[in-house]
# Entry
Amino acid sequence: MEWYLWYLKTMEKFCENFKSLVIRIDFTDPKSNEILLEPLFDSYCWAPRYQEHWRILQGIVDICDLFGLELLEERKPIMMERVMFLCTPALITRRTDFEAHLDYIKNVFKDVQEEIRDKLQLLDVEEVNRLNEALNCYIQGCNYAAIAIAVSAIEFRLLNLMQLVKSNPDLEKYTLGELINEYLQNKKEYKNIIPKKHEPLLNLCNIYRIFSVHPKKEKITRAIATSIINMTFAFLLDKKMKQKAEAKSQV
# Structure
């Protein structure tokens, strides 16, 4: 399993390490140690060590628009194009070509590095672990698993927020559907800690969680998985909800 959320916090370093590895092994004369303009082997991008880094890079670019950052949403198509260039031998026949594509991606992430870190600080360790597992499933095309695990992160947050306002050990025994019903039917008791805009998300996530973990005939498509993953991140990365919860905990 790849720790995509960890890599996102250190993308500049990741890209520089990727570049150094490739230059050292594929663009350096083993006899003279001279850095070359052309690679030692034409299809160097198919080497396992290269592919390992490339797959991580592809995954990170694929999910970068989940964070609600305008620059990443705007540049994602260009970055995806450059990611594909980086695994096409005919398009990276010179070291400068390889460096240019990788540097473009690195610099985009560099411009939003602090914003990404601020977003990730809103997540609990358990939420990070669950989201990371969901992202691995999502990137691999395992739509049912991706939804089930992503929604479990929402369930974890919902339970914590409800207990923050009204401590009740019995809540831990509730299913997600029961938790949602308990909250929606008693919003005043829970001090409306969940913003109203997220209420439809809670019901929708519960519906598709049921479809994903039970033998229903409803098919979970890539589009549905994408929607649920996007809404999960929108819910968990809501800074105002986090601030509201912190204020409630101090009362």
User: Anything to note?
Assistant: Residues 143-249 form one domain.
